[in-house]
Amino acid sequence: MVKRNHELKRKIIPGLKGGKGSVQVTEFFEAEDFHGKGRLYGMSTIAIGDSIGLHQHEGDQEAYYILEGSALYFDGEKEYILEPGDISVCRTGESHSIESVGDVPLKYIMLILYT
Q: Domain map of the chain by residue range?
């Protein structure tokens, strides 16, 4: 299977999970690509100062791999600054939020798999 860049589904989501501004999401997989094992694999871009609000995962877990920019990541207990190459994982029952705090927009790969 090959998917061309122009074929990927893109959407802009304002106020995602109560966050500031909007998030641009590019979906790499469609629902059928997961074979029932997950619900999201793609890339997010968040403008400087925008964010995804604090939310909890139930029945799934989400991983972020930072590509560009800097993120203020909150894991429900502690804040971290994430830089390119860093990974975060929010497991089922845990909460997290992310905010773009660098000099350039935050860009990262995200993967949500069912637990």
A: 7-114
Using CA atoms, how far apart are residues 48 and 19, in angstroms rounded to an integer? 13
* Single-letter amino acid, residue 17: K
In this predicted model, what pLDDT tens digit does every residue of 32-50 receive, in sequence order?
999 999 999 999 999 999 9
Q: Which residues contact 45 (CB under 8 A, 6 or more apart)?
A: 23, 24, 26, 105, 106, 107
Across the beta sheet with 60-68, the strand order is: 9-14, 22-27, 38-46, 106-114, 60-68, 87-90
**Phi, psi of 55, deg, nearest 5:** -150, 155
47-87 pLDDT per residue, tens: 999 999 999 999 999 999 999 999 999 999 999 999 999 99
The CATH number of 7-114 is 2.60.120.10
